[in-house]
Amino acid sequence: MKCIIILLLILTLTSGRPRNELENTKVLEDHKPLTKRVTCHCKGKSGTYWFGISECHDPSSIQCYAFMGVCCVPTPSH
After folding, report:
1. Which end of the chain has fewer CB within 10 Å, C or N?
2. At 46, which CATH number?
3. Which tens digit of pLDDT belongs to each residue from 2-36?
4. What pLDDT, on the 0 to 100 scale, is given for residue 27?
5. CA distances (Å), origin 46, targets 6, 15, 28, 61, 66
6. 27-29 and 32-42: which strand pairing?
7. 53: CB partners within 8 A, 6+ apart
C-alpha cells in the first residue's frame, strides 16, 4: 500500500515537470522576482514553468504543480 502511495506521489510531482528550454526573462509580480521560466507540459499541453510560486498568475489557466513551482498553460479566450 505504501508503494502505491509513493508511486502516485511521484507521478503527481512529475506531471508538470519542466523541460530544459530556458527563457532569459524575469517577471516581477508584487515586487518579487520570478526566476527560471522554462517550458513544461501539463495535461498534454505546453506551458510555462514558474519556480517559487504555488498558483498561476491567471486563475483561468490550466495548472499542474511541479517541484517547487507550478506549470501554467494559458487557456485561449473566446
Report:
1. C
2. 2.20.20.10
3. 777 776 666 665 555 555 444 444 555 555 555 55
4. 52
5. 26, 12, 22, 12, 14
6. antiparallel
7. 34, 69, 70
